[in-house]
């Protein structure tokens, strides 16, 4: 296997007891952190260059530093484990195989922001993950790593694993907070931001699972160690999830800045006898790329410069047998279904995108419909209450940009040209 891989979070995934405390080991990083000043912990994470691994890429240490100190209010840490976007599949296996890295990260993060209560908000459908998290938290309590006077430091922390009810919108941090408080999960108006008025109107940090799980290794090995990987502005390592038409799909932990071409070499390439057609660099809410982007460094800046987003590094790979129009329709159906309905652009826009795409995929539309869906997408982008609406427009704009001829082909043949009876229309496909 190439030395480009940097297994840290995934290092022990092949151990049969990786999810237990015996397989993970004592919380040495947490013990080290609790001997430090909380501000020194925050500074170490700032110096490491760790950026949020949930998609936005905001500097993690800076986010922690926004929490006001000496305000007399309780502080909270909330871990966003509501992973549910199509193609995104890194946090679920991380919590299954290595839950103690997350629990230890929670301790360090909570200590740094002076929080005595923390929550892991996990998607309710992943019952197997919930059970494993509960087991890990129970082990930590039994060892004295959670509860009162952790490591004799005088620091107390209570950690709660909370199951959501299954709503994509609750991956948005303020909707998650509303859900955690017992309300309907809908995004809040910002400001105030969670750092000022989050959970129970108190200062709150909301971090992604992988972000928090990366913290112990930073404290254990030093900020310079972490910053020595990745690129100048996108430092460290991350889990790249390869799925779809690839020989060996799975999780590949590598420095940011690696290319899809390099990852495909490790994964055995596209399935035998086929070639790549299009792919997502960060899940279904990021603009698609094509084979011309195989050598784009997978970091926040390079991907952004090419017109997409790194997102959650969910690399969905599609070969030439896949209909772009049908794929975009399936994604759009998801966003229309998961729209919370709070704002008009998203509620109405995703519905009409779905309706028009259905007509296009069936070969019943006209070229004018391409202008219609891009116009609808333009009226959603930047005008919806949260990022769900913006994400729904990404596959629309990018697919029309790169595969306009394929949309037109549907009109010409009166249906999807990838249907079995019409496969000869596409030559070697």
From TrEMBL:
GO terms for molecular function: 4 iron, 4 sulfur cluster binding; FMN binding; metal ion binding; NAD binding; NADH dehydrogenase (ubiquinone) activity; NADH dehydrogenase activity; quinone binding. The keyword ATP-binding does not apply. Residues 325-370 form the NADH-ubiquinone oxidoreductase 51kDa subunit iron-sulphur binding domain. Gene3D superfamilies: 3.10.20.600, 6.10.250.1450, NADH-ubiquinone oxidoreductase 51kDa subunit (3.40.50.11540), NADH-ubiquinone oxidoreductase 51kDa subunit, iron-sulphur binding domain (1.20.1440.230). Its cofactor is [4Fe-4S] cluster; FMN. InterPro entries: ComplexI_51kDa_subunit (IPR050837), NADH-UbQ_OxRdtase_51kDa_CS (IPR001949), NADH-UbQ_OxRdtase_suF (IPR011537), Nuo51_FMN-bd (IPR011538), Nuo51_FMN-bd_sf (IPR037225), Nuop51_4Fe4S-bd (IPR019575), Nuop51_4Fe4S-bd_sf (IPR037207), Soluble_ligand-bd (IPR019554). It is an enzyme of class 7 (translocase). Keywords: 4Fe-4S, Flavoprotein, FMN, Iron, Iron-sulfur, Metal-binding, NAD, Oxidoreductase, Quinone, Translocase. It catalyses: a quinone + NADH + 5 H(+)(in) = a quinol + NAD(+) + 4 H(+)(out). One of its GO terms (biological process) is cellular respiration. Its EC number is 7.1.1.-. Pfam families: Complex1_51K, NADH_4Fe-4S, SLBB. Belongs to the complex I 51 kDa subunit family. PANTHER family: NADH DEHYDROGENASE [UBIQUINONE] FLAVOPROTEIN 1, MITOCHONDRIAL (PTHR11780:SF10), NADH-UBIQUINONE OXIDOREDUCTASE FLAVOPROTEIN 1 NDUFV1 (PTHR11780). NDH-1 shuttles electrons from NADH, via FMN and iron-sulfur (Fe-S) centers, to quinones in the respiratory chain. This is NADH-quinone oxidoreductase subunit F. It comes from Nonomuraea montanisoli. The lineage of its organism: Bacteria, Bacillati, Actinomycetota, Actinomycetes, Streptosporangiales.
């Amino acid at each position: 296997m190439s030395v480009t891989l940097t297994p840290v979070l995934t290092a022990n995934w092949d151990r049969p007891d990786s999810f237990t405390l015996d397989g993970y080991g004592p919380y040495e990083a947490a013990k080290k952190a609790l001997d430090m000043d909380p501000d020194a912990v925050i500074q170490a994470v700032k110096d490491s260059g760790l950026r949020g691994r949930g998609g936005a890429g905001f500097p993690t240490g800076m986010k922690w530093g926004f929490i006001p100190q000496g305000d007399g209010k309780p502080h909270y840490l909330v871990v966003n484990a509501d992973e549910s976007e199509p193609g995104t599949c890194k946090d679920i296996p991380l919590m299954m195989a290595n839950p103690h890295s997350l629990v230890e990260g929670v301790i360090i993060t909570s200590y740094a922001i002076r929080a005595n209560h923390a929550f892991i908000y996990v998607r309710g459908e992943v019952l197997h993950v919930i059970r494993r998290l509960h087991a890990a938290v129970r082990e930590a309590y039994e060892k004295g790593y959670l509860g009162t006077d952790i490591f004799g430091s005088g620091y107390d922390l209570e950690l709660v694993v909370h199951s959501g009810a299954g709503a994509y919108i609750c991956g948005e941090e303020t909707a998650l907070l509303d859900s955690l408080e017992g309300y309907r999960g809908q995004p809040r108006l910002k400001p105030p931001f969670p750092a000022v008025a989050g959970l129970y109107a108190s200062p709150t940090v909301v971090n992604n699972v992988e972000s928090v799980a990366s913290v112990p290794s930073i404290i254990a090995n030093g900020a310079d160690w972490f910053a020595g990987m990745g690129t100048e502005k996108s430092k460290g390592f991350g889990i790249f999830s390869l799925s779809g038409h690839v020989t060996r799909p799975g999780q590949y932990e590598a420095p940011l800045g690696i290319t899809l071409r390099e990852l495909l070499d490790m994964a055995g390439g596209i399935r035998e006898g086929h070639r790549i057609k299009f792919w997502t660099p960060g899940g279904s809410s990021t603009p698609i790329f094509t084979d011309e982007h195989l050598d784009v460094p997978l970091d926040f800046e390079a991907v952004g410069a090419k017109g997409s987003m790194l997102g959650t590094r969910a690399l969905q790979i599609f070969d030439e047998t896949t209909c772009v129009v049908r794929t975009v329709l399936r994604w759009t159906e998801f966003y229309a279904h998961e729209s919370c309905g709070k704002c008009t652009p998203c509620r109405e826009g995703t519905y009409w995108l779905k309706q028009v795409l259905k007509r296009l995929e069936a070969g019943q539309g006209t070229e004018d419909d391409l202008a219609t869906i891009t116009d609808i997408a333009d009226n959603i982008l930047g005008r919806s209450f949260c990022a769900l609406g913006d994400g729904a427009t990404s596959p629309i704009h990018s697919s029309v940009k790169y595969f306009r001829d394929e949309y037109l082909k549907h009109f010409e043949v009166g249906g999807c040209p990838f249907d079995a009876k019409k496969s000869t229309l596409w030559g070697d496909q």
